[in-house]
Design goal:
CATH class of the largest domain: Mainly Beta
Strand content: 25-35%
Distance between the termini: 17 Å
Shape: elongated
Low-confidence stretches: 15-31
Number of domains: 2
CATH superfamily of the largest domain: Macroglobulin (MG2) domain
CATH architecture of the largest domain: Sandwich
Number of helices: 5
Number of strands: 10
Order of helices and strands: HEEHEEEHEEEEEHH
Length: about 200
């Protein structure tokens, strides 16, 4: 029992020390961007709901309904170890057009539809107004200068608590507990603080 209490106290103190550790975290598509492969290219996708969660980023699991900013940005090879043909992708993407269509799966309602157009600074941003919880699909089409189309899809869950979110929360909790208990075992100053709190608890 003493070890359980030590872990709990260490966790509370650790959270006090690092309050922002998971401010942009969460998994299962929360607090992060997705990498979407479309042909030879990689796009980074993020969804934002300013009216609900400020500037927090989401990926395939979007928590609420309402207007949602959908952002696609090209993942440049510049600054990486990529050379030759890979660097040519950075030049080629500037000549291509990207179109987007967002569809609700249960009834086929089109939420957003924008024809292919050149991305501004390799960026495409649109707003989808999700008025019903459920599953949605983003259909992307990338068009090269010769008119050849490459298509890809992104599945979204909107306004529904998903198993992926729950699993991510459990994983994050386990990682935090393990990290703080390791700190208790290995850092004398941190251990002293935990033991001091335990001593005070015993006095009640």
């Amino acid at each position: 029992m003493r070890y359980v209490i030590q872990i709990f106290v260490a966790l509370i103190l650790g959270l006090a020390v690092v309050p922002g550790a998971f401010a942009d975290g969460g998994g299962g598509g929360m607090g992060e961007f997705c990498r979407v492969r479309i042909g030879k290219f990689t796009l980074m996708f993020s969804a934002y709901q300013p009216h609900l969660t400020g500037d927090r980023k989401f990926c395939t699991d979007i928590p609420g309904l309402g207007k949602t900013n959908l952002v696609f940005d090209y993942e440049s090879q510049e600054g990486t170890a990529a050379i030759g043909k890979k660097r040519e992708l950075d030049k080629l993407i500037k000549e291509m057009k990207l179109g987007i269509r967002v569809v609700r799966e249960d009834d086929g309602k089109v939420i957003v539809e924008e024809p292919p157009k050149k991305m501004r600074g390799s960026l495409l941003e649109t707003v989808a107004d999700f008025d019903k919880p459920g599953n949605y699909e983003i259909d992307l089409v990338l068009v090269d200068p010769a008119g050849k189309e490459t298509k890809e899809h992104v599945e979204l869950t909107v306004g529904v608590e998903s198993g992926a979110q729950l699993r991510a929360m459990i994983i994050a909790a386990v990682v935090l507990i393990a990290a703080f208990y390791l700190a208790y075992l290995s850092i004398a100053g941190f251990r002293e603080k935990v033991d001091a709190v335990l001593a005070k608890l015993k006095s009640f």
